[in-house]
Amino acid sequence: MATALQFDVDADEILVRSINMIAKERLLLDQIATAPPSFAETIKPLAELRNVHMSEFALIQFLGSITASQAVHAASLEAEKMIKEFNAESLARSDVFQAVQAVASNDDELELLCIEDRRLVEQMELESRRHGAHLDDSSAKQQLQTLTARLAELEQLFQQNIRETRARVLFTRGELAGLPPSFFRAREECRGGDDDDVKLVVTTDLGDYLTLMQHARLEATRRAMFLVHNTRCRGNVALLEEAVGLRREKARLLGFHTHAEYTLQPLMARGPHAAHAMLSELRTRLAELGTGELEQLEQLKQADMQAMGRVYEGFFEADRSYYAARQLQQTRRADDDECRGYFELAPVVQQILALFQELFAVSLAKQEGVRAWRPDVDVYEVREASALAGHIYVDLHCTAPRGPRVVAACLRPGYDCSDGTRQVPAAALVARFARPADSSVPVLLAHADVEALVRELGRAFQHVLCATKWAQFHSSRALEQDFVHVPAQTLARLAWNVEALQRISAHHRTGEPIPAALAGRLVAARPQGAALDHLRQVFLSLYDLAIHNADGESHDSVDELFDAMNASISLVPAGATRTFVVARLG
Fold this sequence. Notes:
Layout: H1 11-34, H2 39-66, H3 70-91, H4 94-104, H5 107-111, H6 115-130, H7 138-164, E1 168-171, E2 189-191, E3 198-203, H8 206-215, H9 219-229, H10 235-253, H11 259-264, H12 272-307, H13 317-332, H14 336-340, H15 345-359, E4 363-367, E5 378-384, E6 387-395, E7 406-412, E8 415-416, E9 422-423, E10 426-431, H16 447-465, H17 486-492, H18 498-504, H19 516-524, H20 530-548, H21 558-569
Parallel strand pairs: 6-10
Antiparallel strand pairs: 1-3, 2-3, 4-5, 5-6, 7-10, 8-9
Helix pairs in contact: 1-2, 1-3, 1-4, 2-3, 3-7, 4-6, 7-10, 8-13, 12-13, 12-20, 15-16, 16-17, 18-19, 20-21
C-alpha cells in the first residue's frame, strides 16, 4: 500500500493535525492505563497509533525544512515543540509505565512474541524509565517535566538561531580572487564602504561560506568571512550554558551523577570513563600525525607570505580549508576544474541511482504525474523482486533558504498495518545546487559534492529498503545509536573507489568517464589531512564530555572552555580575535 503524500499543507492545517494527533494519543493512553496489561491491549494499540502519527510528523518536519513560506516553517517548528512536549509528558506517566512494565515482566507472554515485538516492549519500558515514569516522588516528577519542557525549548531556539541568523559580507572582486566563475553567477551587487566601490554580497549560508574558505587566496578575505560566520549566533552561548545546567539537574533527578552518564548508559561505552579513555587514546595516536600534517600546511602559507613580502603571523582555522585544498591539488596533480568536468549534476545522480539499483538488486522507475512540493522534483518507484518497496523523491535545486547543501530525509516510515497490508516508506534527497540562468550551462560538481550525493542517496535507499513491522524501528531507529550513520558512511566509500567513480562520471562535453589515472589520484589523496580532521572530531567529543560530565563547580564558561580545548587538541587555533564557534554547532 502506498498512500499518496500530501505536500500542499498550509500552516493552520499543520497545527490542527498536530493538536489532533496529541488528543488521539492522550485518549488512547488513558484507555491503556485502565485496561488489563498485555501486549495486545497495552503495547500493540499504542504502537499502531504511533505508526500513523510518526508518518504525519515526519511529513510536517520535512515541510518545515523545504518550504519558502515563513508561516509554514513557523507552524512546523511550533508543531514539533508541541509534539515533543507531549511525548515527554506521556513517557513520564506512571500509570502507563506500570502497564508496560507488567507486560515486560511477563516472561510467558514475551516468549510468544517475535523478536521485533519483544524489542518494542523493551524499548517502551526503557524510554519511560529514562523519562522518570518509575519515580515515586511526585514533586521530583513535576520538576523533571518542567526541566524537560525547558530543555526542548532551548534546543529548538538554539537550532532556530543557527538556521535564521544570516549575515552578509561585502567584498570587491579583487578580494574574492581565487573563487571559481560559478561563484559569481547571479551574485548580488551593491555599493558600500568609504570608496563606494561595487561590492559583491557573500552570505553566511553554508554553500557561500565553504566555497569562499576553500578558494579565497587573500588571508584578509578568509579571516573576515570566518569572523562574521563564527560570531553571528553569540546569543546561543547563554542558551547552551543554561541547557548544560538543566541537563545536569535532570540527570541527577533520574539517579545519574551527570548528563554524560545518563546519555552514555544505553550505548556501548556505558559511561563517561570508557568514552574518555577511548577518545584520549585516539588523541594520542593522532597527535603526531596531525602535527606533521599541520607543518605541511604551514609551509604552504609561509611560502605564500614570503612571495607577497608579508610577515608570517601563524596558521589559523581561517587558513585550513584553503591550504588543505591547495595541498590536495598538488597531491592529485589536478585542480578542481579538471575533476568537475567529469561530474555533471544530472548525469551523476542518474548513474548513482543505477549503481544502487544494481547493488541492492532493486528496480527503479521514474513516475510521471506524481505531485511533489515543487514541479521539477523527480519521483522514483522502487521495487524489490517486483514488490513495491517505496518511493524516492529527488529535488536537486531546492530554493528553501535553510538546510544542508545535500541531505536525505524520511518522508514516511514503513510499517505493517493492522489490516494486514503494508504502508511502504518514502524518502527524499534534497540538494541546494543553484540552477544556472542559462539552461545550456551545466551544473558541475566538486568531488566533495559527489561524495555527499552518494552518501545521502544511500541514506534514502536505507529508508526505503528498511522493512520493519513498527515505524518506531524504521531505518536508523532499527540500529543501536552507536551505528546509526554506519550504512550511509559505508556507501559513501563508493565515491573513493576508482571503478565506481568511472561508472558515475561522464565528461560534460565528450561523455567520456573520468580517466583511471585521475580517479586514482583522487582516491590516493583521501588520507590527506585525515589526522587533523579526526582530531577535530575527537576535540568535539571530548568537549561534549567535559561540559556534560562536570559536577557543576567549574567556573569556565562553555565558550571559553571550547576555545581552550580547541587550541590544545585540534592543534589549529581560531586566532587572536574572539569567536563563538560553539554557538553555531548544531
